[in-house]
Amino acid sequence: MEERTIHMELCSSRKQKPESSQLEFGKVFTDHMFIMDYSDELGWHDPRIVPYQPLSIDPSAMVFHYGQSVFEGLKAYITPEGDAQLFRPEKNFHRLNRSNQRLCIPPIDEEFGIKAIQQLIALEKDWIPTAEGTSLYIRPFIISTEPYLGVAPSRHYKFIVILSPVGAYYKEGINPIKIAVENQYVRTVVGGTGEAKTGGNYASSLKAQEDVAKKGFAQVLWLDGVERKYIEEVGSMNVFFKINGEVVTPALNGSILEGVTRNSVNQLLKHWNIPVEERAISMEEVYEAYKNGTLEEAFGAGTAAVISPIGQLAWNDEDLVINNGETGDLSKRLYDTLTGIQYGRRDDPFGWVVKV
Ligand code: COI
Fold first, then answer.
1. In the 8-state DSSP scheme, what is residue 45?
2. Strands 84-87 and 276-278, sheet pairing
3. N6-(pyridoxal phosphate)lysine (modified residue): where (predicted)?
């Protein structure tokens, strides 16, 4: 039975806040965090907001050995009137529960999770940065904490929410990034955990990413794990290609993360009467479009990345320079509209924004 009252333990002194124009991604954390425990006997219980602090966890806790964990990512924004607001948090909690289901983790009450975040953000409102392109990144996550080395679903968990004032995810900011198509490794396969937001997907992406980083690429573009032919996602964002006036994004096939920004982009494009298709798209098709001059734009979409134009795509031994390596009109329009809604500078015709 879930308790509804969130116990508050406030810290005695507040940390110094970083200069908001100097923020990087995910390096600084606020004064407080939210925690709630789970046991098979009590269910999710003891929700509390406490000072941000290290955790004391048994070294045999299952998360350290078998990686049974899930996470989410969303942001809080400050409006011109000084109000704090969230963007589509219900989608994140819905996805969290889908990830939970895949990882055999007990579900969270979605409404209560949003309420917990609202209460935490209200307390940490002064941490929401105001410089252009900055926001307060919210990282809810669940770890399995039962001390046991058998391979089985844990019977104890912690659900934690930490907050980090952030700037742009890529060092390029909102300028176009360079991406390399990954030919050696795969991220996941249909039937695997690709559509769940679980740490293992990201751990398995590191080697490929490290290899291409040495050559100046921001990230890799993953192809499907069976035929190595169809485009999947970047790992930190979903991808879109504008070919001959139409936008194509890989269909959700079970191995691609269902991004909240991806969904919002699709809705905006439909609203603007710009044709958008969710379907399988191969790298050959993108290459063909590049060669015949119809590949107009490519961009990634994600909570951390927002809208990230792709200026260069390396595939086999060729560099596809897209839109002269510049931000395309559609990427710009999407970025301006999405951030306009998120920061409360534009109307919100879809009812996406949730006040804190
Ligand atoms: C997000 O966009 O919130 C993500 O979770 C991507 C990330 C791994 C930084």
1. E
2. unpaired
3. 197
Q: Do 126 and 298 touch, CB atoms closer than 8 A?
A: no
Q: What is the DSSP string of 205-249?
A: THHHHHHHHTTT-SEEEPBPTTTS-BB---SSSEEEEEETTEEEE
Cβ of 304 closer than 6 Å to ligand 1, yes or no, is: yes
ipTM reported for the complex, 2 dp: 0.95
Domains located in the chain, CATH noted: 7-168 (3.30.470.10), 177-343 (3.20.10.10)
Q: How far is the CA of 147 from the centre of ligand 1 (A)?
A: 29
Is the shortest distance between the CB of 99 and ligand 1 below 6 Å? no
CA of 235 to the centre of ligand 1 (A): 8
Position 1 scores a pLDDT of 41
For the stretch 277-293, pLDDT in tens is 999 999 999 999 999 99
**The residue to which tokens 């049974």 are assigned:** 68
- pLDDT band of residue 299 (cuts 50, 70, 90) is very high
Q: Is 168 in the pocket of ligand 1 (CB under 6 A)?
A: no
Whole-number Å distance, alpha carbon 139 to ligand 1 midpoint, is 9
Asked whether the beta carbons of 255 and 195 are under 8 A apart, the reply is yes
Q: Give the distance, in angstroms, between the CA of residue 95 and the centroid of all CA atoms in the same chain.
A: 11
Closest ligand 1 atom to 74 CA: 3
pTM, rounded to two decimals: 0.96
Cα distances (angstroms) measured from residue 157 to each of 54, 74, 100: 16, 21, 11
Bridge partners of 324? none
- Ligand 1 binding pocket mutation candidate from 303, 338, 342 (most atoms within 8 A of CB): 303
Quote the ligand 1 centre to 84 CA distance (angstroms).
21
Using a 6 Å cutoff on CB, does residue 302 contact ligand 1? Answer: yes
> Tokens for 140?
């809810």
Mean of the pLDDT values across residues 243-259? Answer: 97
**Burial (CB count within 10 angstroms: exposed 0-12, middle 13-18, buried 19+), residue 114:** middle
